[in-house]
Design goal:
With about 325 residues, this protein is of the alpha+beta class. It is about 20% helix and about 25% strand. It has helices spanning about 50-65, 90-95, 135-140, 190-195, 205, 215-225, 280-290, 295-300, and strands spanning about 10-15, 25-30, 35, 115, 120-125, 130-135, 160, 170-175, 180-185, 210, 225-235, 240-250, 255-265, 270, 275, 310-315, 325. Strands 1, 4, 5, 6, 7, 8, 9, 10, 13, 16 and 17 form an 11-stranded mixed sheet that branches. Strands 2-3 form a two-stranded antiparallel ribbon.
């Protein structure tokens, strides 16, 4: 239960990609594809940076609250003083996401919502049994939505553990270029399925759940990313422009992502010595963010939006009103 004295509350969220998602690194490179996506520097698993989430959610919140475009984006005022962030205490965009005072001015407000990176929880892979959603102990431990911190490593590292769905058990399963023996005797697999069901993940995904080792998960994800090819069109001829072919990769449709939003208590902050009026609790801060989730489902996140990419549906958890982690109470 949330109390008025808590300095912050962390709320978890889960989303499923309706389209491939491309959050690029900002340049081209020599390799398998020209335009690569952002990856965790240690695990090499694709992710969506928190800065990308915060930026797009600010823009969508400004649309939802009728504050677009002034309170969205960079917010720097024009030379004549017009435009820019309003910075008012009753503005839900400027209070939740922060604001800048402008070039040459000091001050501003950091905002009440902080976004973590989006991590891959379940990754869809084609197999002879149809799509399988793959995860690993490391991916499960990275989320605080369910208690996976005590999850043990797999008994065998070079196999895939999957649920028995009532059909005849397959001795092996192909996951991309890997052909792995199938095991069904890992007891924690049933517990994992029960815990992620609370997240609102559809039953057809849970019924096709499989777990591999951390090492194999990295290889499976990176070898099963979607790679597309595009080319610039010559407006004069309507044909492909010469030497304008490029490729780019994306997380495939059906990828399940998890992230967190840490909401600070507005009662502990002031804007220009005035109390925050737009929101009065961490729960209200979260509500401002969630009001714009429908825009993610239609306008998307990341790049290549005009090429059929980016849409993300935020799943409704069974008990979203209760946060999993609360901040320290202060007197």
């Amino acid at each position: 239960m949330i109390t008025s004295n808590q300095s912050f509350v962390t709320f978890p969220f889960v989303g499923i990609a309706l389209d491939p998602i491309h959050v690029g690194t900002g340049g081209t490179r020599l390799g398998r594809v020209d335009n690569t996506i952002v990856r965790d520097p240690v695990t090499r698993i694709p992710e969506v940076p928190g800065s990308s989430i915060a930026g797009v959610m600010r823009a969508y919140t400004a649309m939802a609250k009728g504050k677009y475009p002034n309170c969205a984006g960079l917010g720097q005022p024009e030379r004549d003083g017009g435009g820019g962030h309003c910075g008012k205490t009753d503005c839900p965009v400027c209070t939740v996401f922060g604001f800048a005072k402008g070039i040459g001015s000091s001050g501003g407000f950091a905002g009440l919502a902080a976004f973590s990176d989006m991590h891959v929880l379940l990754f869809p892979v084609a197999s002879q049994l149809g799509p399988q959603w793959i995860t690993c102990p490391m991916a499960l431990r990275q989320t605080s939505i369910a208690e996976f911190s005590e999850l043990s490593d797999l008994p065998e590292q070079q196999v895939v553990y999957r649920k028995v769905d009532g059909t005849a058990a397959q001795p092996s399963l192909n996951l991309g270029w890997l052909f792995l023996p199938v095991k069904t005797d890992w007891q924690q697999l049933g517990e994992i399925a029960q815990k992620i069901e609370v997240l609102g993940i559809p039953g057809y995904i849970i019924s096709r759940l499989a777990v591999v080792s951390d090492k194999l998960f990295t290889h499976i994800v990176n070898s099963n990313l979607e790679v597309r090819t595009s080319v610039a069109i010559d407006p004069a001829t309507g044909a492909a422009e010469e030497r304008a072919l490029f490729t780019y990769e994306a997380m495939p449709r059906g990828t399940v992502l998890v992230w967190e939003v840490t909401c600070r208590n507005p009662k502990h902050f002031k804007i220009n010595q005035d109390d925050v009026k737009a929101v009065d609790s961490p729960e209200k801060v979260r509500d401002v963010v969630t009001d714009a989730h429908s825009y993610l489902e239609h306008l998307g996140i990341g790049g290549m939006g005009s090429r059929g990419m980016g849409r993300l549906r935020v799943l409704r958890m069974k008990d979203l009103s209760d946060a999993d982690k609360t901040g320290k109470e202060v007197s």
